[in-house]
Amino acid sequence: MILTVTLNTALDITYRVRALRPHTSHRVTEVTERPGGKGLNVARVLAALGHEVTATGFAGGATGRSLRDRLARTPGVVDALVAVEGATRRTIAVADGTTGDTTQLNEPGPVIAPAEWAAFLDAYGDLVRSAAAVALCGSLPPGVPVGAYAQLVRTARAVGVPVLLDTSGEPLRRGVAARPDIVKPNADELAELTGSHEPSQATRDARRRGAHTVVASLGADGLLAVNSEGRWRAVPPRRIQGNPTGAGDSVVAGLLSGLVEHLSWPRRLARAVALSAATVLAPVAGEFDRRTYEELLGQVAVTGEATAA
Questions:
Q1: Residue 291: how many CB atoms within 10 A of its CB?
Q2: How confident is the model over 5-49, as pLDDT tens digits?
Q3: 187-194 vs 169-177: helix axis angle to the nearest 10?
Q4: Selection from 41, 45, 46 nearest residue 57 by Cα
Q5: Which of 20, 56, 70, 91 is the most interior residue, by most CB within 10 Å?
Q6: Which residues are catalytic?
């Protein structure tokens, strides 16, 4: 079982319009609603790849009930969310059918009380013991300590479970210091963490701060991965136009599935890049176009070399 943690879950609502123009009324052509938040997106992709997944985090209020109802209809994902008093947030994505661009509106999350955080820590401690790997994903809702991810990394490492961290800002800085097995920042998050805008230098700096493996997401330019075993670049065969929302979450799913399947690093990275590119063609985050994924998987160029033993 792979465990995903989404402390700031959301009900993702996507509106599709023919063309988005400021200061005008719009007729919505399609509405979709999905359980959201980075870790839940990761969970859906992992389940689609055939892995058993348990999803934990927080859910509350009417929005939380709606999210859990939809999560219950997601094959392969077990709901282990912890109930809270506050209402789960919504995210509103407006997809422009003319340009292909998406405008995102993100509500703040619920305020988490100290007792609710303590209840989550108890539940997480039990779940992680049965996990093959853990993904810690996304922002922190109000009330959760800024060092929360560092605490969750240490709990996983204490029982020998590999952990991947995908967050930003101060939670990332503190989480990296707890020595996660993998961190997956994008270029901006990596620069904020290290102060360097040069990816090669920044990945080395992030490793010195505590991460065992750094996988930097460089958008259309693919992935850069660095660890004690080697250094690799993985690049898609072509640029794919579409909605990039959720592409980074598919990278996490590719990396974690490759980890539990004991794939080599080049094969893990090829899978992650192919999944990310295929997600751009999917209508909503947490899904991918399977035909595109299977087509691209053998075409991703992975260069680099393993470190000599």
A1: 10
A2: 999 999 999 898 999 998 999 999 998 888 999 999 999 999 999
A3: 70
A4: 41
A5: 56
A6: 249
Sign of the CA dihedral running 232, 241, 94, 294:
negative
Q: What is the spatial distance between Cα 296 and Cα 302, in angstroms, rounded to a whole number?
A: 12
DSSP letter (8 states) at residue 220: G
SS3 146: coil
- What pTM does this model have? 0.91
**Alpha carbons 172 and 137: distance in angstroms, whole number:** 10
Distances (CA, A) of 88 to 7, 58, 122: 10, 8, 21
Q: Which residues contact 291 (CB under 8 A, 6 or more apart)?
A: none
State pLDDT tens for residues 105-147: 999 899 999 999 999 999 999 999 999 999 999 999 999 999 9
Strand order in the sheet with 10-17: 28-36, 10-17, 89-96, 102-106
Q: What share of the chain is helix, strand, coil (3-state, %, to 5)?
A: 40, 25, 35
